[in-house]
TrEMBL record:
The Glycosyltransferase 2-like domain, residue ranges: 1-87
Organism: Paenibacillus cucumis
Source organism, top-level taxon: Bacteria
PANTHER family membership: GLYCOSYLTRANSFERASE, POLY-BETA-1,6-N-ACETYL-D-GLUCOSAMINE SYNTHASE
Protein name: Glycosyltransferase
Length: 361
């Protein structure tokens, strides 16, 4: 782990893994609170590191201190929930010493819903064999490069519970230094710069950055998908609905349809009161939800209840009450206690009963 001023979260994180791992290595990059004291309660391997505006360099230094066969990395605001702890224990037993597995991909819950259910989830290369030579790259939003050798996917999820904090000034400082050294903002560097503008609600600047990124002849596919989604939101904020729809449709140049893009496209037509077209796109969201490609986090709502809830509204607007009730029922399978869905069901059932009586009378 690399940490700085994490006194509010560090113990919470370490309590969930301290009995599962064989060593804990903490690299402190300049804390001014009780972070190092808290770390010392869990391990004697607490090191200071002179921060040089480079996250990958710090991560690599922390990896260099490791002595065990496999390295698991975490952030201070991550936790392992009880069920995931049991799965990690089982994984340790299944990875024999000297085995051929070089890395393990695990789930990453970025936002939680009721009772800890994942709202937004992603995947990370979370566990790597030390001798596989894995290195971190990127001064900001660093990434761990995949090792040579077998990489498996485990049904284990780390949960990210972000504490309130604003790192925008630090991130902009790192990016400016990085851009100055590169001489130009392009590729992933441009992606990060646009992201910082987006996070600071500078939507016009973010839109220019994402649009420029999408004009480049090559790049990471997942970055382009995220750029399309955020470009669409920027245009929404800037009051340009036509360009918003164009950004959403542009995502199909880079990958198969994703459920959240289909829902967003459907919403554009729904707002225009083009109900039949909106129904088509909500149905596409339902169709792709079971096989979403998984290149980027897709909100769970778009893969579960949301398209059905919107389809119910669309069919009600067309006067197709039976179909409206059908999709209301499908949405309630995911949200059985939602008062809005329950209220709509009661209204739909009342309309259907009235029509049946009229037909029978």
């Amino acid at each position: 782990m690399i940490v700085k001023n994490e006194e509010r979260t560090l113990a919470r994180c370490l309590d969930t893994v301290t009995d599962l791992v064989d060593e804990i290595i903490i690299l402190d990059t300049g804390s001014s609170d009780r972070t190092m004291d808290i770390a010392a309660m869990y391990t004697d391997q607490v090191y200071t590191y002179v921060w040089n505006e480079d996250f990958a360099a710090a991560r690599n230094e922390s990896f260099a201190r490791a002595t065990q066969e496999y390295i698991l990395w975490l952030d201070a605001d991550d936790v392992l929930l009880p069920g995931e702890r049991a799965k990690l224990t089982m994984l340790k037993e299944q990875l024999p010493s000297g085995g051929k597995t070089a890395g393990v991909i695990m789930g990453y819950t970025l936002a939680e819903g009721p009772e800890g259910s994942p709202l937004v989830a992603d995947r990370r290369l979370r566990l790597v064999r030390r001798d596989a030579g894995c290195r971190w790259h990127g001064r900001l939003h660093e990434q761990l490069r995949f090792p040579q050798g077998e990489v498996i996917t485990a049904d284990i999820a780390v949960t990210h519970r972000r504490e309130a904090g604003n790192h925008s000034a630090r991130n902009v400082r790192i990016l400016r230094k990085w851009i100055a050294e590169e001489g130009i903002a392009q590729g992933r560097l441009l992606f990060y710069y646009a992201g910082e503008c987006y996070d600071r609600q500078r939507y016009a600047a973010a839109a220019r950055g994402y649009a420029k990124l999408l004009e480049q002849p090559s790049g990471y596919r997942e970055d382009r998908l995220i750029a399309c989604a955020r470009l669409a939101e920027c245009y929404e904020r800037l009051g340009e609905p036509g360009r918003k729809l164009g950004a959403l449709l542009q995502s199909f140049q880079y990958d198969l349809p994703h459920a959240d893009f289909c829902c967003a496209i459907a919403a554009c037509f729904h707002e225009r009161q083009e109900i039949v077209t909106a129904i088509y796109w909500y149905m596409q969201a339902v169709d792709v939800s079971s096989r979403d490609p998984g290149l980027r986090p897709v909100p769970a709502a778009c893969r579960t209840w949301l398209p059905h809830a919107r389809l119910s509204l669309c069919y009600a607007q067309l006067g197709n009450w039976e179909q409206a009730l059908l999709h209301n029922t499908k949405a309630r399978k995911y949200l059985p206690d939602d008062p809005g869905l329950i209220g709509n069901r009661e209204k739909l059932e009342a309309v259907i009963r009235k029509q049946r009586k009229e037909r029978e009378g």
